[in-house]
Amino acid sequence: MCRPPAVDAVLRSAAGKEAIARFGRPSVVAAVRAALSELRASGVPHSDAAAIGAIVIERLAASARPSLRPVFNLTGTVLHTNLGRAPLGQAAMAAASEAMRGPVTLEYDLGTGSRGERDEHLSHLLCALTGAADATAVNNNAAALLLALNSLAVGREVVVSRGELIEIGGSFRLPEIMMRAGVRLIEVGTTNRTHPADYAAAIGPMTALVLKVHPSNYRIAGFTAAVPASALAALAHERGVPLLHDLGSGVLVDLRRFKLPSEPTVAEAIRDGADLVTFSGDKLLGGPQAGLIVGQRDLIAEINRNPLKRALRIDKIRIAALAATLALYRDPDRLALDLPTIRLLARSESDIRAVAERLRPLLQAALGLDFAVETVSCRSEIGSGALPVETIPSAALAIASLSHADAGRALVGLAEALRKLPVPVLGRTAGQRLLLDLRCLEDEAAFAANLAGLGEDAGQGP
Ligand SMILES: *Cc1c(COP(=O)(O)O)cnc(C)c1O
Asked: How far is the CA of 13 from the centre of ligand 1 (A)?
């Protein structure tokens, strides 16, 4: 009867030696033992040492692969929250990498040789770009809102329109954040209409803040009324209460410059009289995850005195990336080149269509005769709740199954095969087709090389 080889024989084989060099002896020994005992249990006849060594290498390589991996985002959603939102530009990556390497002047003032402030690396840039007097940065915009509310209104009332009590997704619901911040929510108006008199009647001696929230991820249409930021600021100030404006997306330039739908900028919100404005670093701003708070000096000082600030602050790596990203805004003409978020959003349909035309024959060849690939027009979304209604014209490779038996299943199988590629390719389904929106594809050569991994079983259902 054939017996499986001994552990030692596998370790001494060429494959075994390669495995030890790559993954270390302890993991390889454990993997060889596991493979051999499976072999015994299954009763499969003899496998030689080299074959088992190869299986072990394959398994260890698979388990060593990180779960956080690069993908091709061809979903058509540019700022995809589940895919990490904004891709960083070269300058930001270089700065982050430099900051990671070793000691930096995070909280050190080289002029005086004494302790410095980590916020200073960002605040002068943020003030210059927004017209605000001071600025601070925390982990994300949810944290910015939580911190601002807790610092300025704990135990007191915050007045908000019912039309702005939003859920951003995940577990970010404004009423819950307010409760956790320790403030009392005073709702005014109705879902579709809120008037100045509603706010005026609600502001009283217990009111600490008036909050305005940009309804970033939805639109109420039809018979609606909201109080414009400038009128609301005037009203709040008349009653001696500051206005906090949560903008969501941190737009720092007029997007119409790039032929994109316009979205209120942070500078506009400050100009309209908001005392504090909060926004994200990794939405339309195009930087790393962060929450920025800009506004009045005394209010920012109050926020910085809150012990929660220490729990929510950002690290040197993100400060470096954010500062480098903000620096790009000093020359808005270059944003469409140097800031990936703007570059991708500003890409014209004809440019994207040209990419599709170049890649279509390659994809068709890789998929074989079971699928038909054509170039179609489609619409991309900005994503992350920014400009939810406006989509931008784009182009996609649309893949249809030619299988008469079960086209739907074949398409599901193909989507799975694309997710199993060395660099997973993520598209979206639209009716009976799989769409690969090419707006966010810049490295065509890498995409083409990756297709080689499709092999022969592409499109076979599970
Ligand atoms: C996205 C968003 C938030 C949350 O920002 P994160 O950076 O994701 O924490 C808060 N408020 C508004 C209006 C938003 O659009």
From this structure: 55
C-alpha–C-alpha distance, residues 164 and 111, integer Å: 46
Rounded to an integer, what distance in angstroms lies between the CA atom of residue 52 and that of residue 15?
8
Helix, strand, coil percentages (3-state) for the chain, rounded to 5, are 45, 20, 35
CB distance 413 to 462 below 8 Å: yes
Last residue of a domain, one of 336, 357, 385: 336
pLDDT for 62-115, tens place per residue?
Answer: 898 899 999 999 999 999 999 999 999 999 999 999 999 999 999 999 999 999
Query: 166 and 35 in one domain?
Result: no
Do 77 and 100 sit in the same domain of this protein?
no
Total number of residues shown for the chain: 462
> Ligand 1 in contact with 291 (CB < 6 A)?
yes
Distance 217 CA to ligand 1 centre (A): 9
Q: Is 130 in the pocket of ligand 1 (CB under 6 A)?
A: no
Helix or strand holding residue 7 (H, E): helix 7-12
Q: Looking at the structure, do residues 46 and 115 belong to the same domain, yes or no?
A: no
Which residues have CB under 8 Å from 44's CB, separation 6+? none
- Looking up residue 402, the CATH number of its domain turns out to be 3.90.1150.110
Atom of ligand 1 lying closest to residue 386 CA: 15
Q: The domain spanning residue 222 has which CATH number?
A: 3.40.640.10
Domain residues for the domain of 22 are 7-64
Tell me how far the alpha carbon of residue 2 lies from the centroid of ligand 1, in angstroms: 64
Q: What is the pLDDT of residues 173-223, one digit of tens each?
A: 889 999 999 999 999 988 888 899 999 999 999 999 999 998 766 667 777
Please indicate, yes or no, if residue 50 is contained in any of the structural domains: yes
- Minimum CA distance residue for ligand 1 atom 7: 141
Q: How confident is the model at residue 241 (pLDDT cuts 50, 70, 90)?
A: very high
Sign, CA dihedral 17-18-19-20, equals positive
Q: How far apart are the C-alpha atoms of 29 and 392, rounded to whole Å?
A: 55
For ligand 1, is residue 149 a contact (CB within 6 Å)?
no
If you take atom 2 of ligand 1, which residue's CA is the nearest one? Answer: 248
Task: Say yes or no: CB of residue 140 within 6 Å of ligand 1.
Answer: yes
